[in-house]
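Case 519 in the screening queue. Each case pairs one protein sequence with one candidate compound; here the compound is xanthosine-5'-monophosphate. For every case the pipeline is the same: read the inputs, emit a complex structure as tokens, and attach any notable structural observations.

Predict complex for case 519.
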Amino acid sequence: LVLILDFGSQYTQLIARRVREQRVYCEIHPCTIPLAQIRAMQPRAVILSGGPSSVFEEGAPSVDRGVFELGVPVLGICYGMQLFCHLLGGGVEKAAEREYGPARIEVRKAEGLLEGFQRGEHVDVWMSHGDRVRSLPPGFETLASTPNAPFAAAGNLSRRIFGVQFHPEVVHTPRGVEMLRAFLFDVAQLPPDWTPGSFVEEAIEKIRNQIGPEAHAICGLSGGVDSSVAAVLVSRAIGDRLTCIFVDNGVLRKNEAAEVVKMFKEQVAIGDHGEGRLNLVHVDASKHFMDALHGVEDPEQKRKIIGRVFIEVFEREAAKVKNATHLVQGTLYPDVIESVSFKGPSATIKTHHNVGGLPERMNLKLCEPLRELFKDEVREVGASLGMPHHVLWRHPFPGPGLAIRCLGEITQEKLDVLREADAIFIEELRASELYEQVWQAFSVILPVRSVGVMGDGRTYENVLALRAVTSKDGMTADWARLPYEFLAKVSSRIINEVRGINRVVYDVSSKPPATIEWE
Ligand code: XMP
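Case 519 output:
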């Protein structure tokens, strides 16, 4: 385990990702955790993240000095470096100029963190700091410098403590990965043995221990990547003691329910060479949801109603599972980090908790087998479980589904039109191999009618908006530059094939200031 202590940097998650990409397991914890807890984790190396604070501020976050006595390598990044210089007898000062952006370091000593580099070589890096190191603690030497930061990289080679003023974890430091590799493999001598396969074996063991030999577990299956992989993983561990409940809320995409059911029937076959069968309960509650949504226009109301009805339906079904003690959820690491990170939940991140509070209400313990993984790792785990590619690369789909893509009041008729048009859009994206190049793509039926002409007649029908965005995490997004030819084809197919639409528009707004969904 590599322990990453978080001092509140926006890049802390990136550090974790870069380390995991090297097949080394790491965890992020707030810098405030007690030394005893750190010792108990037995980290093989420690990374101190950057952070927005200055070591001179009152109450600036710090770390127990014992971390430097653990005898394991330590890497301080930006604030992390300033902090250990401050704690170990060096000096830190306000830089005359805040340094932010690209810089070029000159390598002075190609050892330790800079193993594999050449002395005298110039390397592009990304700086972002207000304070800088004025003098190094005893026993430390310079590894690289810039005109502005004489100690851009430094280290104590015998104690294996290193620091960098810049950010090796960001893409703007193109050779940052080499530095992290030098730290992990040359300095800390860690084996790159954390693979999806090894994760699956360990996870199955853990799930069996957690749930025990007799108890049952329930999983709310949406058909999305996370809940699907979680369900398949848990089914490998406890076989038919897992019951998956899939609720059709009436606002799913065209053929969605049938596809999810089919996919999980196929999983049964995959499960056969593992531990058992997958129990799937398919509840068609569309009418219940549609009745509750009748006449509702406000988006927040729609969300609340769908969340509430989901809980009602789910609880009713779950109550039929005897001896259930655990609820399986596909929580991922970014959600976990959000709740443990040093600064508390960051303001920029918007999460949509549709069914918060469910486990407490139902008196079930949580089983979250993916809570240490990033999305791309979940996909790798799914692939190593034999799950099909198209399932693992599905776009995210919001809990309230088409309800928030059918603007204003929802009617069955509008939903049907939306489903048909949306299916054409998605089908064409797949056919043109554009589907996986966008983060999300969907159609929105607008509460607007416009005039058209078809044959000799005048039409007065709904307008449909197409939305396709690129994004890394859904927090910010840009509209996808889909080829004109492609848009032309989709538009003409929709207007010709879907009754009720006579005009198609393409949404060219980025997030922020717009959001990805329209409601
Ligand atoms: P926005 O529209 O806020 O969406 O830019 C960001 C991401 O979240 C999804 N989304 C939701 N997911 N329940 C969900 O489970 C919701 O109520 C909800 N609203 C938006 C949206 O599809 C996008 O991926």
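Case 519 observations:
- Residues 344-351 have pLDDT under 50 and may be disordered.
- The two ends are 42 Å apart (CA to CA).
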